[in-house]
């Protein structure tokens, strides 16, 4: 059954692959981002409508969701993919520019979107929430205490709301990607990429479409009895 899906950070990388996959599955898809040019470029390329939203700001989320639901339709599927990195050693980390920034964009944003969208899902008796976490939220990562904390917090948040929303026909799950080839990773030195591949039993770096495939399943009608789970998509690099 076709639904209306909202993808945060849906114009590049993993988010763009998810948006395209859900559109191919027959859903009406909208993306949100903070950069007007990226929204316009992605909409021109794919025909997927874009709306400006600062996911870290509750008022911005509330305003954008109202605009989307008036212009398109009520949101049935929410994929929280927006995220940033501001890496550094914890003992040198700037409390505002590195810690607060990552926590707000990567974790507080997930509360913001769920808080605004979930009431409508409850009223309609259906919803799918997929939060894109990370392997580093499951294991921690050197130099990423802020990012690891946010992604681990996302997992705990998802498990809590899965319990709260289950009796209203709403599922909430996490996808935890491993090492995925994006613009950022593609720019890394070849020797570092080769070293990462050696850590992955499947023998290759993941692609954004690997994450999109899992997300497409989790938002489907067939996944209606899957909730509160963390789906590790990492080629076997981490088996929690």
The computed structural class is alpha/beta
Architecture, according to CATH?
3-Layer(aba) Sandwich
The helix/strand series, from N terminus to C terminus, equals EHEHEHEHEHHEHHHE
Cα-atom Rg, whole angstroms?
Answer: 17 Å
- Tell me the β content: 15-25%
Low-pLDDT parts are none
The CATH homologous superfamily is named NAD(P)-binding Rossmann-like Domain
Question: The CATH topology is what?
Answer: Rossmann fold
Instruction: Summarize model confidence as the mean pLDDT.
Output: 96
Write the layout of secondary structure elements.
Elements: E1 4-8, H1 13-24, E2 28-33, H2 36-46, E3 49-52, H3 58-71, E4 77-80, H4 95-124, E5 127-132, H5 135-139, H6 145-165, E6 170-177, H7 183-186, H8 190-198, H9 208-218, E7 230-233
Parallel strand pairs: 1-2, 1-4, 2-3, 4-5, 5-6, 6-7
Helix pairs in contact: 1-9, 3-4, 4-6
Overview of the structural elements:
With 240 residues, the chain is of the alpha/beta class. The protein has a single domain, classed as NAD(P)-binding Rossmann-like Domain (Rossmann fold), CATH 3.40.50. It has nine helices and seven strands; from the N terminus they run βαβαβαβαβααβαααβ. A seven-stranded parallel beta sheet has the order 3-2-1-4-5-6-7, with helices on both faces. Helix 3 runs parallel beside helix 4. The mean pLDDT is 96.
Question: What keyword list fits this structure?
Answer:
240 residues; alpha/beta; Rossmann fold; 9 helices; 49% helix; globular
């Amino acid at each position: 059954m076709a639904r209306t899906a909202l993808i945060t950070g849906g114009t590049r990388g993993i988010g763009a692959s998810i948006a395209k996959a859900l559109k191919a599955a027959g859903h009406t898809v909208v993306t949100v981002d903070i950069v007007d040019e990226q929204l316009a470029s992605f909409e021109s390329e794919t025909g997927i409508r874009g709306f400006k939203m600062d996911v870290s700001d509750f008022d911005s989320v509330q305003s954008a969701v109202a605009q989307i639901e008036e212009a398109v339709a009520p949101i049935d599927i929410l994929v929280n993919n927006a995220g940033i990195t501001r890496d550094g050693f914890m003992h040198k980390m700037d409390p505002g520019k590195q810690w607060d920034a990552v926590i707000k964009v990567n974790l507080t944003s997930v509360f913001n979107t769920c808080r605004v969208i979930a009431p409508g899902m409850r009223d309609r008796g259906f919803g799918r929430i997929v939060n894109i976490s990370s392997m580093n939220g499951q294991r921690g990562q050197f130099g990423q205490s802020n990012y690891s904390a946010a992604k681990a917090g996302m997992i705990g948040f998802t498990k809590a709301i899965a319990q709260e929303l289950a009796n209203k026909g709403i599922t909430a799950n996490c996808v935890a990607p491993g090492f995925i080839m994006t613009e950022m990773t593609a720019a890394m030195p070849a020797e570092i990429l080769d070293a990462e591949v050696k850590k992955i039993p499947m023998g290759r770096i993941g692609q954004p479409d690997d994450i999109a495939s899992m997300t497409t399943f989790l938002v489907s009608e067939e996944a209606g009895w899957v909730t509160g789970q963390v789906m590790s998509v990492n080629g076997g690099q981490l088996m929690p």
